[in-house]
Specification:
With 181 residues, this protein is mainly β. The chain has one domain. The chain contains 2 helices and 12 strands, in the order αββββββββαββββ. Strands 1, 2, 3, 4, 5, 6, 7, 8, 9, 10, 11 and 12 form a 12-stranded mixed sheet that branches. Strand 7 and strand 8 form a beta hairpin. It is globular. The chain starts with a helix and ends with a strand.
């Protein structure tokens, strides 16, 4: 009886680990390590500049966890401070929670003492995200933007994605912190 309990417990732990594997904290792998991994050379990010935005509430936006900021300048998000007088390429994915749809556009918001936002192009291939989350419609969930940081004040920020899917506004906080110096 004790052996059955141990096996059942081990299986339960393995199932939870697999379920969490696709939840908003993925790190891009090098192109040669996995055939479905995001490859920075497969897309041309949009360009833009972060601009200060007024304090606002998310209004009627649904809070979801179906997104991630995977990389900044092809390195794991939050792994290095960002210089204020530079540009940086932000890349990740966003999708409609509970749907098989992806947004037509996303706004990347840096939330801190003051908030800053930039629009990012969407529709980049992310078959890894679709597979990990078991949503075939998420194969084009990728986004990317090469953004100018010169308007962003020095400080620590939480990246949040704001977007609409099927006419429903959504807000998705990532699990990262970015430092701008």
């Amino acid at each position: 009886m004790r052996m059955i309990s141990i096996v059942a417990g081990s299986i339960s732990i393995a199932l939870v680990a697999l379920a969490l594997a696709g939840c908003g904290n993925s790190t891009p792998l090098p192109a040669d390590s996995a055939p479905d991994a995001p490859v920075s050379g497969n897309y041309t990010p949009s360009t833009g500049a972060f601009a200060a935005i007024p304090d606002k509430s998310s209004g009627n936006a649904v809070s979801v966890n179906s997104c991630n900021l995977d990389a900044v300048n092809d390195k794991p998000a939050g792994s290095e401070p960002l210089a204020r007088d530079s540009t940086a390429v932000f890349a990740g994915w966003a999708a409609g929670a509970g749907t098989d749809s992806v947004p037509a556009g996303v706004q990347l918001v840096l939330k801190g003492v003051r908030d800053y936002a930039v629009d990012a192009a969407t529709g980049f291939p992310r078959p890894d995200v679709a597979k990990a989350n078991n949503h075939a419609g998420w194969t084009a969930a990728g986004y990317a933007v090469n953004a100018d940081l010169s308007a962003v004040a020095s400080g620590t920020y939480t990246p949040v994605l704001e977007f609409s899917v099927d006419g429903k506004p959504m807000q998705c906080a990532t699990q990262h912190k970015l430092m701008v110096q």
